[in-house]
Amino acid sequence: MKMIRSFLLMTLSICTLVLTSCKKNTEKADLNNEAESTKINLELELANNSDSHLEAWVNYYKQGDNSFSLAKFELKNTDTIHLLPGTIIPSYDSDFDTVYKPYLFYSPDRSKYIDIDSYWWRIGDNYKVGFEPDQEIDLINLKTREVSRIKFFGPSEWVETVLWETNDIVYLLENTIDNVPVISKINLQNHLEYQYFYTDTLRFQSDFTRI
Q1: Which of 9-23, 115-129, 163-177 has the lowest mean pLDDT?
Q2: The CATH number, out of the four listed (2.70.98, 3.40.1350, 2.40.128, 2.30.30), of the domain defined by the range 52-210
Q3: Which of 169, 162, 175, 166 is nearest to 194 (CA)?
Q4: What is the pTM of this model?
C-alpha cells in the first residue's frame, strides 16, 4: 500500500509540474502574441496616419538621421496610468495665457485636449523662452471641466508632440537624454499605457521642441 501511495503521489506531483509549466508557456506565448500584435498595429496606425504633428516629427528625425523609421519602435512596457489633479490653468479659465493656445492638442471631437507646454516653459525678457527641468502632461476635459495630470517627466525624458488616434486613444511622442525616442500609446478609457522604445540610438540630439 505504501508503495502504491508513493507512486500515486509522485505521479500527481509530476502531472502538477507539467500542467504548471504548460500554463506558464501558454501565458508567455499569449503575452508575446499580444505584444507582437500591438507592435504591428502601432506601426500600421502611425504609418497610415496623416496627422500633421506626426508628419512633422518624423520628417524632423529623418533630416537628422536618415535611418530613422517608425518600424524600429518595439513594445517594451505596459502599465496603468493614474490620473491626478493637474496644476496648469485650462483654456476656459480667465487667467489662461493665450500664448499657449496654438500648442494645445485637441481630440478629434474637440471635447478635450492635451497640454504639454503650460507647465514646461515661459516667455521671459526679450521674448526668450525658458524651459523648466520638469514637464507635466495634462488632459483637460472641456465637458466636465476637469484637469488631470496623466504623466510627469524629469529632465531626462520629455514629450515633444502629441497625436490623437481616436477621442480616447492618444500618442505621446517623446525623446530622452540618451537619444532613444519613445512612443507612449495611452487609452484614456481603461487607463492602459503601451510604451514603444526605439531599438537604435539617434545620431543627433533632438531640438524638436525648440524649433
Answers
A1: 9-23
A2: 2.40.128
A3: 169
A4: 0.77
